[in-house]
Amino acid sequence: MSSAIPPPAARYGTTAIALHWVLGLAILALLVMGWYMTDLPISPQRLKLYNWHKWAGMTILALSVLRLAVRLVHRPPPLPAKVLSTMPTWQQLAHHGTHHLLYALFFIVPLLGWAYSSAAGFPIVVFGLVPLPDFVPVSPALADILKPLHGLTAYALVALVVLHVGAVLKHQFIDRDGLMARMLWGRG
């Protein structure tokens, strides 16, 4: 297993690494909360969790905007030549496709949640202080369409996260190519 830290040009920047891990953990926590709260009976606890879920979703949306801006300004390092020389073309396409879909879902999932909340007539007041405008007009029919779309896209995000983590583990423990070190804290 390669334990050497890649040179700075081959690593992600500190901000990109921080956003990767903060958003990754926040998204996983939000997905777990989403699964848990939907099975609760109507109660003050369920309402509190729904509000927290919405606040967290809007925070993830804002951090995703920041993450995309960082990525556009600071291009990610290319895959190392050693990795590219041994990675089949279909895996390279899967690598890029998975990252593009992950980024798309970082926006789609919370935007659908915001739209559903608006259509259902439940405003989002971030941290109980900052009311957000309705994303769409109140419409029970639209809410009935948006609710399952929010859930389906969240499940798609889960599937891509599992695929991403599986690929990372493959590179770390089977290929032993040190690819994971590009996104870990360390000297640059």
Could you explain the architecture of this structure?
This protein has five helices and two strands, in the order ααααββα. It is an all-alpha fold and 188 residues long. α1 runs antiparallel to α2, α2 (44-73) crosses α4 and α4 packs antiparallel against α5. The longest helix has 36 residues, at 140-175. It is elongated and about 55 Å long. The mean pLDDT is 92.
Highlighted features:
188 residues, mainly alpha, Fumarate Reductase Cytochrome B subunit, two-stranded antiparallel ribbon, 2 strands, 68% helix
Please render the helix and strand layout as text:
Layout: H1 14-38, H2 44-73, H3 81-86, H4 89-119, E1 125-126, E2 130-131, H5 140-175
Antiparallel strand pairs: 1-2
The name CATH uses for the topology is Fumarate Reductase Cytochrome B subunit
CATH H-level superfamily: Transmembrane di-heme cytochromes, Chain C
Order of helices and strands: HHHHEEH
In helices, the fraction of residues equals 55-70%
CATH architecture: Up-down Bundle
Cα(first) to Cα(last) distance is 19 Å
**Compute the gyration radius: what is it?**
19 Å
Extended strand count: 2
Question: What would a concise description of this structure say?
Answer:
The chain is mostly helical and 188 residues long. The chain is built from five helices and two strands, in the order ααααββα.
